[in-house]
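Support case: uracil complex. Customer-provided input:
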Amino acid sequence: MRNWDELEAACGACRNCSLWEGRTNVVFGVGSRQAEVLFIGEGPGENEDLQGEPFVGRGGKLLDDMMGAIGLKRRDVYIANIVKCRPPQNRDPMNTEIEACIGYLRNQVALLRPKIIVCLGRIAAMRVIQEDFKITRDHGKWYEKNGVWVMALFHPAALLRDPRRRPDTFTDLKALRAKIQELCTHTPLAD
Ligand code: URA
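Agent response - structure generated as follows:
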């Protein structure tokens, strides 16, 4: 098993699929390496590619607000993506790209050993929870995978497109807060 710095360096030099050709930066992940809660998005968009950090655009601001709604701070969790390089025109990552990249996320999970994983959107949920995951049907449900509690929320970009999904997401976030209170020992939750 690699350590964090070796893993990040390997990922930064990766050419396992053709997405490397269009990248400005590899978007490895950010946050606390002691985090008990891991958020997993789909892949970098334009702003993330330019800055090398996940969820820094409009969707990122909404993700911060979503966490803020339950008293959670970005610096106290870890945020990563299924694929670490931006797909052209923000298209969905292809299965071949996901499979080429998933080893980095596996290693991140192995190093972090999170108590809770939150998938952001359909693509992450289909890869992490189950292949036939339907986000409109299955968001907010808890799954136990190898001793880790996993759930999915609507992707922030989907919430920006369709604000009617926000009340459901608030319900899901409250379930997340309750699970953090139940399982986590050092994840601060403001009132
Ligand atoms: N959308 C994602 O899924 N991940 C990011 O990092 C940014 C936008």
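The longest strand covers residues 148-153.

Case will auto-close in a few days if no follow-up is received.
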